[in-house]
Amino acid sequence: MNSTNSVSYRWNTVDDQSELNQVALSAILDNATKSIRQRGEFHFVLSGGDTPRRIYQQLRFIHTNWSAWHIYFSDERCLLAGDQNLNSRMAGEAWLDHVPIPKNQLYEIPVELGASRAAYEYASTLRSVQAFDLTLLGLGEDGHTASLFPGHEWGSEVGSPDTLAVFTAPKAPKHRVSMSAARLSRSRQVIFLVSGESKHMVVAKWRRGNNMPAKAIMPIAGIDILLESSLLVPLSI
Ligand code: 6PG
Predict the structure, then answer these.
(1) Is 166 helix (H, G, I), strand (E, B) or coil?
(2) CB 3.0 to 4.6 Å from 229: which of 13, 25, 184, 218, for a disulfide?
(3) Would you say 144 and 138 are in contact if contact means Cβ atoms under 8 Å apart?
(4) Residue whose CA is at the smallest distance from ligand 1 atom 7
């Protein structure tokens, strides 16, 4: 991974959030089916944020071999167990608590240990997985993704640690743990889910090549970006 390398972007537009959910759901199912057929397992990294919540809710109802699914989190907020702002709680309530994925295949970030220790422990959990099959990511208005924020360490260089402890996040809570850009990039497919008018400016900046955390995600296979067509205006405007 190197900032001088380039990554190919596939900008896939949809009419609205409901179509975005459908397209994302079918991409997840396709990848899971293919991964399970080819390797017997599906290693899937979840994003936090609001955009994926309805997709997670719909995942409850798909037909799949749940025992082959392995679930990871791109990032987590350092909050007390059970806090409603935990990404793991959101994904649990929306989806994971309702399907029979073996509990030892749900790899939550142990944030109750504090950011430093949790980052260290999660890096050791991740050591057993070479490349993720699918990583979902969101995009913040400032270009952040996972808990990689502008002006902070993103871990994009080769040899970067797999996880980063964050102590001064610009969004509450300040303490977080995030997979690094290098680790998130080690994925056979990366899909960014981008929805809502507030993302207009950041999408234009990303397309113009402005430096931002999302730009540090550089999987070999390129990136699929699912977004509402209203966000993809001509760049001259
Ligand atoms: C988090 C996320 C974060 C999120 C973006 C977009 O823990 O908050 O991982 O990176 O994906 O902020 O969030 P929305 O989907 O809510 O716009």
Answers:
(1) strand
(2) 13
(3) no
(4) 48
